[in-house]
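Feature request disguised as a bug: please show the residue count (503) next to Acyl-CoA reductase-like NAD-dependent aldehyde dehydrogenase in the output. Example input:
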Amino acid sequence: MTLDAPTTTAPSSDDSSADTITVLDPVTGEVASETRRSTADEVRDAVARARAAATGWARTAPGARGAMLRAAAERLRDHADELAAMNTRETGKVPGDALGGVEAGIDTLIQYAELGPLHRGEALRGNHGAADFAVPHPRGVVLALTPWNDPVAVACGILGAAIAAGNTVVHKGSERSPGTIALLNRLLAAELPDGVLVGVDGDAATGEQLLAEDGIAVYAHVGSTATGDRLAEAALRTRAHVIRENGGNDAAVVDADVDPVWAADQVALGAFANTGQICTSVERVYVHRGIAEEFTAALVRAAERKTAAAATDFGPLVDERLRTTVQEHVDQAVSAGAQVLTGGSVPAGAGTFYPATVLTGCTDDMLVLTEETFGPIAPVRIVEDMAEGLRLAAEDRYGLAATVLTGDTATALQAAAELPVGTVKINAVFGGAPGGSAEPRGASGSGFGYGPHLLDEMTTTTVVHLEAAPRRTSTPTDAAAGAVDPATAGSHDTDTATAEDVR
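Example output, currently without the count:
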C-alpha cells in the first residue's frame, strides 16, 4: 500500500473554508507545521466509519489482527526519522529523545501484536458435568485522546492495545503536535482495514464534538486532569468506559543513608528529563536533613550541567504559554520565601527555553509543591526523618507515582504499602519491566494504562455457564403421532413415575 491510501480523514469538500492549526517551532519561533482542522462533517464521518468497521474487526481472528499491527509497526520503523523530525519541530523535543519515542512506540505496537492473540478469558470451577468460563469481547469504538509531550510513544500504547483487542479507534492528538499525530495516523492506517483507525485533527472544540457523538464505547485519555474530568462528566451521559492517565505531582523522598551525589543525579533525571515535561516527572523533593546540604549542592551542579546542554540534550518548553505558567510558579515560591539556587528566570534569546531550576526553603503551601508545574523545576523541602517525608509525599490530591531513595528495606516496604499512587519506584526514578502497568489514583486518573492490563480495560467480559441439554424422550415419528405424554415430557427416563404415582 502507498502512504496516501487509505487516508485517515476524508477530504473536505471546501478546504478553503477550513481552519488551520499552526504550530510554531519552540526553538526558532518559525512555523513548524500547519495542519487543517477537521470539519464537523469529517468528525461525524470519522465516528461513523469506526462504527461501521467495528463488527468486522471484532470478528477478525486475533492472530490476523496481530499480524496487521506488526506490519503497521514496521511501517513506522521505515518512517521513524521523519516522525521524529516532525516531533522535534513541533514540540522542541531533542532529536535523540524524539527518535527514542518513536522507537518506543514501535516496540509497544509489537508488544500488543504479540499479547493480543494471547489475551484470554478464565475457566471457572462449576458443577460436575457443567462448564463455566469467561470470554473477553471488544468494547467497540475507542476514542483515543493523546498528548504532545511524547506523542508517538504514548499514542502507540493506547492505539496498540485498542486495536489488538478488536476495537476500532477514532484518534485525536493534542493540537500542540498535530502534524506528528496526523503522520502517525496515516502510517498506521495504511496497514489496517478502512475504519479500524480514523484520525481527526483539531483542538478542544473538536474534542467536545467527539464527546457529543453517539456510539463511542471507550474514552482513553492521557493528558491534563481538567480534560480527564471533562471526559468523566461526559461519560455519565454516554456510559462510555473511561481510562485516564492525567496530571501528576510526583514526590521524591531521599533518605539519609544514601549517597547524596547519586541521589541528586536521580532527582535531576526525574525533574529535568524532557525539560520536566513528563507526566511522571519529579515535581516535589523531600530530603532528609542529614544529607540535605550535600544533596542540594550536588543537585545544583546537575541542574547547571543540564542547562548547559540546551538544544542538544535539554530542549525548550513546548510553547510560551507553558513557560509563562512555569515562571508564575517560581515567582510565587520566591515571593513566599523560597530561594533560587540556580535558574529561575526566562533566558534571553529566541525560543521558549527555560533553565533547570533548584529552589530551597520551600513550604507546603507553594504552587511548586501543590500543583503540577510541568517544567524543569526541583523544589527542595527538608524533612526531619523518612516518616515525615513519606507523610508529606502522601498528602496530595494527585496519585500518579513516587520515588523513594533509601537503603533501608523497612522504609521501602512502608513506602510500597502506604503511598497512595499507581507506581512506587525504589532507588530508580525511571525504569521498570517491559509491559508494566500502572493504575493512577485521585486527580491523576483511573484505570490501567499500558501493559497487559490495558487489554483488560479495552474489553468486556461475558461469563458463560454451560450444561448439557436433556435428550429428547421420543422419536420425531412418535411426536408426529402425538405419542408424547405431557406428564413425562422432558424426562430423562421413560420409566419415570407419573405425578399420580408420586402421590
